[in-house]
Amino acid sequence: MPGGFGLTELLVVLAIVLLIFGPRRLKSIGADLGTAIKGFRKAVTDDEAKAARAEADPDVIEGEVTSGKAEAKQETHV
Question: What is the pTM of this model?
Answer without folding.
Answer: 0.48
